[in-house]
Amino acid sequence: MINQTAAIRYAALLAGGLAGYLAVSGIFAGKGAKLEVKPEPTLAQGHVRAGSSQEGYSLVLPKGWVRIDPKNPQVQALLEEQRQKMKGLGDVAKRFDLSSYVVYALDPTTADQAIPRSVNLVRRESKGSLGDPAEFAKKLSSSLPEQIPGTQILAAGAVDVPIGKVPRIVSSIPAPDQSGGTQPTTTVSYVFAHEGTSYNLTITGMGKERSEVEKLGERIANSFRVLR
After folding, report:
1. What are the sequence ranges of the domains in the chain?
2. Which CATH number applies to 2-226?
3. Sheet containing 197-204: order of strands
4. What is the pLDDT of residue 92?
5. d(Cα 165, Cα 62) in Å, to the nearest integer?
6. pTM score, two decimals?
7. pLDDT above 90 covers what percent of the chain?
8. What pLDDT, in 10s, does the model give residues 94-135?
9. Cα(55)–Cα(123) distance, rounded to whole angstroms?
10. Across the strands, what pairs with 165?
11. Which of 37, 57, 202, 227 has the smallest number of Cβ neighbours within 10 A?
12. How far apart are CA 151 and CA 169, in angstroms?
């Protein structure tokens, strides 16, 4: 199934691109508000919990999502294929270790096809807090079009979630599709930081309406909890 799912291809590559940019830009520094550890959210009917205490986080996803191991040889092969198609993004992704990536994608055989296609999370060590969340989002978003050609920034600022105020970036990126072309893809990215660890959460729409992707992103971001 993996080698037939463009959503999984792009989810893993996008994770690499955004997290790779965060890593090489060296902007995880400075002083500012840090997140508080909160109790885990109650699961709604038809939803599943992802993450674990060992991984340091939890979040709630709609039922029908499958976890993809980015170190899977099939995923690695797909990443290399997409790097050839999207060289700018691929060059960034190639510089970053995939071992911290977690990708959740819709299982086409069971999932509701009306909702966006993938969620990915990158966990890495950071040197400090993000500083002012809104300024952090603006700084990151101003450089993304260079790092990921074809990117359009739709919104960049800070939002309030249960664990604090966090940066959020909404963008549109031309994602490779199964026909060999591209389609506009809405992504919503959040960055959480807590006691030396940062989490980059990105929801990918694969051609879905912006409002639909943002709505799912808001639900998932509101369910995110730091567990250590």
Report:
1. 2-226
2. 3.40.1000.10
3. 65-68, 101-106, 118-125, 197-204, 182-194, 164-176, 152-161
4. 52
5. 24
6. 0.76
7. 11
8. 555 555 667 776 665 554 555 556 788 877 776 666 788 899
9. 9
10. 160
11. 37
12. 12
